[in-house]
Design brief:
By secondary structure, this protein is α+β, with helices and mostly antiparallel strands. Helices cover 45% and strands 24% of the residues. The strands form two sheets. A four-stranded mixed sheet has the order 4-6-5-7. It has a three-stranded antiparallel sheet with strand order 1-2-3. The protein starts with 5 loop residues before the first strand and ends with a strand.
Length: 174
């Protein structure tokens, strides 16, 4: 059959995406393709690590019209990209108890993340261990403590060089 690609060009956060029916006369699918779509897919796959329902990039955060409750989660390089992204959890859809716990813990979580980004993993672990754990925060804290311990172990084994640490965690998988 002949190609019946019909695309709509759109912009999201100043980046080009294509949306529309893509395929041939015998098989058509509506899809959206482009770099923002790929990044969104990668960020969605990170939710399991950070125990977050919604993760957005700093670029998306800067384009939101309304204010939302957000927490800086990390600086990451996602699979297929070379540039680091600041990522945030959006949590204003959660119950009041969880929102309050996240709001209350935000300062200390930021402090721990700052130590982690500097490569001061023992200090980050110490701060994470001092946090009063609400179930929503426990997953994030446990994840970071585990990551810090793994990076410290990798340094001991010689597979990680702290002098080359740039504060960005690189995800190799989707």
């Amino acid at each position: 059959g002949s190609d019946t690609v019909k695309r709509i060009k759109a912009r999201w956060c100043n980046q080009q995406v294509s949306a529309g029916n893509i395929g041939s006369e015998s098989k058509m699918d509506f899809t959206v393709i482009g770099d923002p779509v790929n990044i969104a897919s990668r960020l969605e796959s990170l939710t399991k690590y950070y125990t977050a329902d919604i993760i957005i990039s700093e670029d998306v955060l800067s384009h939101l019209k309304a204010r939302h409750d957000t927490l800086l989660l990390d600086n990451v390089v996602v699979k297929g990209k070379n540039s680091p992204l600041k990522i945030y959890e959006v949590y204003d859809h959660k119950d009041e108890k969880t929102r309050t716990a996240l709001n209350d813990a935000q300062g200390i979580l930021d402090k721990a993340l700052g130590e982690y980004i500097k490569g001061n993993f023992p200090a980050a672990i110490s701060i994470y261990e001092s946090i009063q754990l609400h179930p929503q925060i426990k997953g994030l804290v446990d994840y970071y403590k585990g990551r810090c311990l793994a990076l410290m172990q990798a340094e001991k084994e010689g597979s990680f060089n702290i002098s080359k640490w740039n504060g960005y965690y690189e995800f190799k998988e989707k």
